[in-house]
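Final report, Chapter 2: Outcomes

The project's central promise was a pipeline that accepts a single protein chain and returns its three-dimensional structure in a standardized token representation, suitable for archiving and comparison. That pipeline is now operational. To close this chapter, we reproduce one record exactly as it appears in the project archive, with the input sequence first and the structure output second.
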Amino acid sequence: MTKLLSAALVVWLTLALPAGAGVLPLTDSKGGVPSLAPLLQDVTPAVVNISVLTRSAIEDNPLFRDPFFRRFFNIPDQAARQERSAGSGVIVDAVRGYVLTNHHVIKDALQVIVTLKDRRQFQAKLVGMDPGTDIALLKIEARNLQALRLGDSDMLNVGDFVVAIGNPFGLGQTVTSGIVSALGRSGLDIEGYEDFIQTDASINPGNSGGALVNLKGELVGINTAIIGPSGASVGIGFAVPSVMAKAVLDQLVRFGEVRRGRLGASSEDITYDLAMALGLASTEGAIISSVDPSSPAEKAGIKPRDVVVAFNGRAVRNSADLRNKIGMVPIGESIELGLLRDGRPLTTKAQIAKPLEVPSISEERVPQLAGASVANIKPGSPLHGKVEGVLVTKVEANSPAWQHGIRPGDIIIGVNRRKVRSVQEFLAALKTGENVIMLSLLRGDFRLTIVIR
């Protein structure tokens, strides 16, 4: 009976491999039983534990607001205490010491300590971060590092076996396994650019920034979030696909930030009824609903009712997928779009342009978003009459607002799911006393959600 079970497990693991994968040592040479141990011996040295020192405000006391009380007891103007938290990371370049992790793991960090599997510790430097995808890049000065190979997350299928590696609850390196439960998850309001891999491999607090690995030993995702009533794993975890993480990595190395531009075309998902009306074979793709005058899209010959089915040679699933792909392309670079127009396939190229610069007149500082200034959209602005919201006119570099991912030119259209049409409504919405602020933004052609705790 044991031999039959062992043989079945070998078949199970073999079938988990994608087509064309190399043969893996799925059997422990010592015990002769099916095991992932040989695979994990190769990949786990590339997954690190991250310890973060942050400063958090001391619990508010009415007496602290009295300047005479503060002066008498020599209390600083911004009383704070230091806290430590734990997360995970993945070494992706052994020569340069690059470590990928989540933005929310190292946000507001005073100090970041990276601990390798061999227990060596290094203080990390921040190369750059992108709140929109929840990706951050660290650098450590170390020798004899082992990096994890980047896989192609676009080749994943629902049902593929994956392994999650991280530091749950600060316990130390932990391995869990499962399958890909779904692909292209979005609309979760977790981050601005959502294209998550969903998995039932156990992901818990502290796993954030860790590795999601396929059975070829390749990094296919950066573990990011979970959905669970208790804040622990209930079999629904999410990871940023490696293709998206790689695009962010490249820009962080080049610029220290992700420089997103605009195509100048709005798109929508294709419903079943719309596909039938247009004579489309499926609902895959994104249909262009409008094209801005003098935009890169117009110059490329893109027209309303065109269906975008491919982006730089890769299939486009829906409007959110197209938005994410555009958002990963640096300003000034060209893209190739595969279109269907009246059922005929077309190919066109466009160059991603800078976001529109919108002039402002009056500004008002926002205490809850230190470093940012906002203004009403005035008559004469290209946006007046087209969108209702509050314009972000300035963001000081490295300010709290900047670190949260807010940028000049953003249009705030909602606070905690409440629409805001003016600075007055915006400031009133911020005074609700809620501990978490959820901002809904428009940035160029895209809609984002930024959560501030």
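Archive annotation: Residues 2-35 form one domain.
This record, like all others produced under the grant, will remain available to the consortium after the project formally closes.
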